[in-house]
Amino acid sequence: MGASLGQMVVFTGIADLALIDIVEGIAEGKALDLAQARPLYGSDVKVEGGTEAALVKDADLAVITAGITRQPGMSREELLLTNARIVGQCAEATGKYAPNAFVMMISNPLDAMTYVAAQKTGFPKNRVMGMAGVLDSARFRHFLSEAIGGSVKDIQAMVLGGHGDEMVPLLSSAVWQGEKIEKVVSAEALEKIVSRTKNAGSEIVSKLKTSAFYSPAASAFEMIQAIFNDEKRLLPCSAWLEGEYGVNGIYVGVPVILGKGGVEKIVELELTEKEKELFAQSCQAVKSSVEKLKGLKV
Question: Which band of pLDDT confidence, cut at 50, 70 and 90, is reported for residue 274?
Fold first, then answer.
């Protein structure tokens, strides 16, 4: 996923790029490959890669994708302890070498790993965020567009909550060409779409035998553009809650305004009673994961 995102960065020329991997030669080789594509992309950005954490020095933004990936039948939660240690090391290096960076978490379990990154860097809440809601919402919109037979461009829909089985696709605010989705798609079809959205990652893992990378990379890039171009986009991200939606002290997926200040504002949407209940359940699942991490040396 990191390499796929790197290709988008180099292709657009939005920023210089450094790839870091603990396996000797992997990041350096990918960096060389990307650098040699620059004449074809018309891109003059700098591209480097290697195993040294110091390559992140003075970065404006660090995207953490490190960790073991899911295997068929494996839940995101099973990755918790192993990836907490890996992410913790990456976050500490970021805090040391790039103290002014934004941190974007991709590793799973996403919300718990974003918490680890915040703890290890000590960065303020606006500079640490998790990419999941953008991806889950894109998947939701894709499945809705298939059911409708219309363009994804005409569908507005969002997924909140933790990046796991308890995520909450919002049907109450989903619209197609200004029409509520619930008036266009049958309740039975919507139930299947919600279920498929929740299991979209697992569906890919079952076929690909590893985690997705094209759609997560595109999702992360949308967030990067929003920050670097100060777009003030309304995007669902894993953000630190301090009373919003009645929740305190966790990172979880909510709509935010994303701009040059990072997470500049958390937007509180009006949810139905059922959606509030589901969101609370999702938050509790995230809290349970975080509780497992407390006291663990990562």
Answer: very high
- Closest by CA to 21, choosing from 55, 50, 59, is 50
Alpha carbon 272 to its chain centroid, in Å, reads: 25
pLDDT tens digits for range 208-265 = 988 899 999 999 999 999 999 999 999 999 999 999 999 999 999 999 999 999 999 9
- Identified catalytic residue from 163, 239, 250, 259: 163
| Among 65, 62, 66, 129, CA closest to 100 | 62
CB atoms within 10 A of CB 188: 8
**Active-site annotation holds for 163:** yes
Q: Is the pLDDT of residue 207 over 80?
A: yes
Phi, psi of 101 (to 5 degrees): -80, 155
Mutual angle of helices 200-208 and 187-198, in 10-degree steps: 60
Q: From the CB of residue 126, how many other CB atoms can be counted at a distance below 10 Å?
A: 17
User: What mean pLDDT, rounded, does the chain reach?
Assistant: 95
Q: Domain segments of the chain: what residues?
A: 2-130, 133-293
Residue 15 has pLDDT above 90, yes or no: yes
Q: What is the pLDDT of residues 1-13, one digit of tens each?
A: 999 999 999 999 9
3.40.50.20, 3.90.110.10, 3.40.1190.20, 3.30.1140.32: which CATH number matches 133-293?
Answer: 3.90.110.10
Total-model pTM = 0.94
pLDDT of residue 21: 96
Burial of 227 (0-12, 13-18, 19+ CB in 10 A): buried
Question: CATH topology for 2-130?
Answer: Rossmann fold (3.40.50)
Type of residue numbered 57: K
Find all residues with CB under 8 Å of 252, minimum gap 6, and list them. 111, 160, 161, 162, 238, 239, 241, 282, 283, 286
